[in-house]
From TrEMBL:
Gene giving rise to this polypeptide: ILRUN
Record's protein name: Protein ILRUN
Gene Ontology cellular component annotations, sorted alphabetically: nucleus; phagophore assembly site
Main location, first listed in the record: cytoplasm
Subunit structure as annotated in this protein's UniProt entry: Interacts with IRF3; the interaction inhibits IRF3 binding to its DNA consensus sequence.
Keywords: Cytoplasm, Immunity, Innate immunity, Nucleus
Organism lineage: Eukaryota, Metazoa, Chordata, Craniata, Vertebrata
InterPro entries per the UniProt record, alphabetical: C6orf106_UBA-like, Ig-like_fold, Nbr1_FW, UBA-like_sf
Length: 225
């Protein structure tokens, strides 16, 4: 484990080593959580199996195996583009969650990376979206189509970037959703989508040329003359 910065709570590890559980799914889940979702469940099972399903030994084997010379991609969360703090959405409503992220490392991301759901509430059936390989320091927006739960309340889910080989990297990014009857977010997103579509329509010849700053009121006035 030389060269690796391993910051695991010894008391926590002692508790896990004393669990004596034989439930492999529980051990895989705890192993993945202790690694901060850096490894997918299949990878966790590999290290647990090679250490006879001893959680503490598996953690050690993982860090022994991970060479400090291997360059892991970097990703930093920048901001929520949609579903920010204080916004709410009605129950059973389709919406688009968008995050702004950055390749905060010195190397471009490898091909085939994706953003994956890793825990909490999922908000629909989508659990993965492909993300293009970002250049160093490049910023991009990543969106996922979601649906709000049917009951009012506060909900949260976690997503992480993942390489094609199953290695999770970068910040954990969150969906924190307030579901309220009468929430306006779904309506505002629909209006925004309509405005975008309207603005991208090909320009037609205006039968009532009003200049660049014509208004609906100007158009009615022109029609009445």
């Amino acid at each position: 484990m030389e060269g690796m910065d391993v910051d695991l709570d010894p008391e926590l590890m002692q508790k896990f080593s004393c669990l004596g559980t034989t439930d492999k799914d529980v051990l895989i889940s705890e192993f993945q959580r202790l690694l901060g979702f850096q490894l997918n469940p299949a990878g966790c099972a590999f290290f647990l199996d090679m250490t006879n399903w001893n959680l503490q030994a598996a953690i050690g084997a993982y860090y022994d195996f991970e060479s400090p010379n291997i360059s892991v991609p970097s990703m930093s969360f920048v901001e929520d583009v949609t579903i920010g703090e204080g916004e709410s959405i009605p129950p059973d409503t389709q919406f688009v969650k968008t995050w702004r992220i950055q390749n905060s490392g010195a190397e471009a991301w490898p091909p085939g990376v994706c953003l994956k759901y890793v825990g909490g509430d999922q908000f629909g059936h989508v659990n993965m979206v492909m993300v293009r390989s970002l250049e160093p320091q490049e910023i991009a927006d990543v969106s996922v189509q979601m649906c709000s739960p049917s009951r009012a309340g506060m909900y949260q889910g976690q997503w992480r970037m993942c390489t094609a080989t199953g290695l999770y990297y970068g910040d954990v990014i969150w969906v924190i959703l307030s579901v309220e009857v009468g929430g306006l977010l779904g309506v505002t997103q629909q209006l925004s989508s309509f405005e975008t579509e309207f603005n991208t329509q090909p320009h037609r010849k205006d039968p009532y040329p009003l200049g660049a700053h014509g208004t609906v009121g100007d158009m009615k006035h022109a029609q009445s003359n």
